[in-house]
């Protein structure tokens, strides 16, 4: 039986509080001095780095290159695409002055009124406008296309209600921005990237997702279409985990980005943008973790294996270390990250609890008697099962075990989602059952009015129109009007 972490609220008692405590206790992040912003601590950032490195490799395999664009955007740029500015206006942080001065009354510093900017600058909430203002200088002919750029950056969206990783005023993300010569190429890239996000979520995060299209009400401001991947958290709520937007020619027209096509005629460029953020950290926590702490998929765990020696004196430690080092070397050769924790300032029991809390997939414990017997105790974090194994061949066993753990936590999450997904044709039944969470496959008449009514009356939203869903027509559960197909409705983060 694992040691239960003192003070960690159980999920069954208060899921939200459990999450907030776990983020802090597992050393992932903490609140900062700036309201709504967080400090991502080294262990939390190490997980984000593994996500970042994997995604970066996947992007580059499709021909994408990294670039960097300014943090500050002229206000006039944001005004050029009407839907875009309307979608983000309420979240923008604005820079109005460029200098401070000493307060004449001796009370610290004040904004210098003589240093007002001629034009206010917006701290980027997203970068479509500054990037398309730049692409105008890059694109002149069809020979300049496609442009496939991504940037890893921070953005600012002034949030009133924040929760670490899930919704903060400042967050880290990547945003890809591509320019194409044809509508077909742009649509193909848009779909390609949502498929890439789904592959990453399922193969690396061990998180099953549903790919779909957003309703007109939920799509990105200024997009013709938004594709999404939706994941279910353990409390039955949805989490939008990645989006890819077909922007058509809207931003090209707003910034006059044209090219001379193969017929020697001018044409507006076709665009898409796509992104995921540190919200994926929240998704990772809420999909897999338990009352003992984090449960990390081996493919993203900063430490995949920890080895804890149990010793009474230096002689015993030396004997254990002699046995352990070949295992460490073999694991390292296999590309497995391993930590040998021989520090003598913490008791083994404390280390066990700490590594469980931090979600390390495999823990080995070895004492003096194990050295004599040529054995080691192994515990897997996903099931908390322990077994005593021979030291010989243990590294290769772990290599196989890590893949088993990866598959097991994916299958566990998939089973949970399947058990909490319901077909529903009655609005009264839906209103009653939505209180317990889950994904509801319902018919909807396609109108914004019905969508808004559902949101107002139940706090649930249309998460997506599934790409692989049932396209059998029916009648809307709310209005009884014709419906083309079922959509997924759920409460969400």
Describe this structure in words.
This protein is α+β, with helices and mostly antiparallel strands and 493 residues long. The chain has three domains: 15-72 and 128-288, 2-Layer Sandwich (BirA Bifunctional Protein, domain 2); 305-416, Rossmann fold (3-Layer(aba) Sandwich); 421-490, Translation Initiation Factor IF3, CATH 3.30.110. Helix content is 34%, strand content 28%. It contains 14 helices and 27 strands. The strands form seven sheets. Strands 3-9-10-16-13-12-11-24-27-23-22 form an eleven-stranded mixed sheet, with helices on both faces. The chain has a five-stranded mixed sheet with strand order 18-17-19-20-21, with helices on both faces. A three-stranded antiparallel sheet has the order 4-8-5. Strand 22 (421-423), helix 13 (427-433) and strand 23 form a beta-alpha-beta unit. The radius of gyration is 26 Å and the shape is globular. It starts with 14 loop residues before the first helix and ends with a strand. The model has no long low-confidence stretch (mean pLDDT 96).
């Amino acid at each position: 039986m694992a040691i239960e972490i003192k003070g960690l609220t159980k999920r069954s008692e208060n899921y939200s509080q459990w999450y907030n405590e776990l983020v802090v206790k597992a050393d992932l992040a903490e609140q900062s001095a700036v309201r709504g912003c967080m400090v991502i601590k080294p262990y939390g950032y190490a997980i984000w780095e593994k996500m970042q490195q994997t995604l970066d490799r996947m992007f580059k395999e499709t021909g994408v290159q990294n670039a960097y664009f300014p943090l500050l955007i002229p206000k006039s740029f944001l005004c050029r695409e009407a839907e875009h500015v309307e979608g983000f206006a309420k979240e923008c942080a604005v820079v109005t002055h460029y200098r401070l001065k000493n307060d004449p009354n001796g009370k610290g510093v004040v904004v210098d009124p003589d240093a007002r900017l001629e034009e206010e600058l917006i701290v980027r909430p997203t970068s479509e406008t500054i990037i398309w203002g730049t692409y105008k200088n890059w694109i002149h002919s069809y020979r300049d296309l496609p442009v496939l750029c991504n940037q890893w950056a921070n953005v600012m969206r002034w949030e009133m209600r924040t929760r670490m990783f899930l919704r903060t005023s400042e967050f880290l993300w990547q945003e890809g921005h591509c320019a194409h010569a044809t509508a077909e190429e742009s649509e193909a890239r848009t779909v390609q990237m949502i498929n890439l996000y789904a592959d990453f979520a399922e193969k690396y995060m061990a998180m099953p997702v549903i790919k779909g299209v957003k309703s007109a009400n939920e799509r990105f401001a200024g997009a013709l279409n938004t594709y999404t991947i939706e994941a279910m958290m353990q409390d039955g709520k949805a989490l939008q985990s990645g989006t890819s937007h077909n922007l058509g020619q809207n931003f090209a027209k707003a910034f006059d980005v044209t090219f001379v096509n193969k017929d020697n005629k001018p044409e507006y460029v076709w665009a898409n943008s796509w992104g995921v953020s540190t919200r994926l950290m929240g998704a990772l926590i809420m999909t897999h973790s338990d009352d003992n702490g984090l449960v990390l998929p081996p493919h993203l765990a900063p430490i995949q294996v920890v080895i804890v020696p149990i010793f009474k004196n230096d002689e015993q430690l030396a004997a254990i270390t002699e046995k352990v080092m070949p295992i460490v070397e073999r694991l390292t050769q296999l590309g497995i990250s391993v930590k040998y924790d021989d520090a003598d300032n913490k008791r083994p029991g404390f280390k066990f609890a700490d590594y469980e809390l931090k979600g390390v997939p495999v823990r080995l414990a070895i004492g003096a008697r194990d050295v004599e017997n040529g054995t080691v105790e192994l515990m897997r974090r996903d099931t908390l099962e322990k077994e005593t194994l021979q030291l010989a061949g243990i590294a290769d066993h772990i290599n196989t075990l890590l893949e088993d753990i990866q598959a097991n936590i994916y299958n566990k999450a998939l089973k949970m989602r399947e058990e909490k997904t319901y077909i529903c044709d009655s609005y009264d039944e839906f209103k009653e059952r939505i209180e317990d969470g889950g994904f509801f496959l319902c018919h909807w008449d396609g109108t914004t009015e019905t969508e808004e009514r559902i949101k107002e009356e139940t706090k649930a939203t249309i998460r997506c129109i599934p790409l692989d869903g049932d396209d059998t027509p029916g009648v809307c559960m709310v209005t009884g009007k014709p419906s083309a197909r079922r959509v997924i409705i759920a409460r969400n983060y």
